[in-house]
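Person: I have long wanted to understand how a fold can be written as tokens. Underneath my words sits a plain record pairing an amino acid chain with its backbone structure tokens. Those tokens are not coordinates but codes from a learned vocabulary of shapes. I should like you to check that the lines agree and flag anything odd. The protein I mean follows directly.
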Amino acid sequence: MLTDTYVPIAEEIEAYALDHSDAEPPLLARLNRDAHVKLLRPRMIAGHLQGRALKMCCRMMRPKRLLEIGTYTGYATFCLAEGTDPDAEIHTVEINDEMEPFFRTYWQEHPDRMKIHPHWDDIRRVLPQLGPEPFDLVYIDADKRDYCAYYDLVFPLVRPGGLILADNTLWSGKVVKEDATHTDTQTRGIMAFNELIRNDNRVEKVLLPLRDGLTVIWKK
């Protein structure tokens, strides 16, 4: 039994992890800084550590057809693109078209931009336009109130053996607070999604305490 053990705070743990991971690419580092200067909610971007994890996931899986729900700045989009083969295609969907100028600034410079197909519309209108081919990987990072709806929408479109990744599934720790069921609608949305995934026997799943929570879902 260990006693008097020093437990570093979360910031120190993250700093250590970053120091022992691949560096943030210069373009993404610039995007990160720009987001913190120009945007109201810069913490909504995936960030350095999670971005490297997304790239690594693609390196290992080598998906050819990807879907992202929630583009925001494009940070996660670019990380997914980094990890995929040259013939991959990534459809990224964002309902807030006010983010388009910010996204395009970095998309135009990104070496993998030809893989990335942005759509500025509601995912429900976009999906029918993308053809019948199944997706190898879906990344969900949009309105937390609609996570269950997004999951039900895309699940039939993911091939067996494909992955669904869902971001923010710990939601700043609000999911474990005693009064969580009485808090805001976004917290309730995340909690409902987490319960949905836990009870879905069509998949295998793990909720990783990476940054704000990343759930990895493998379709049987």
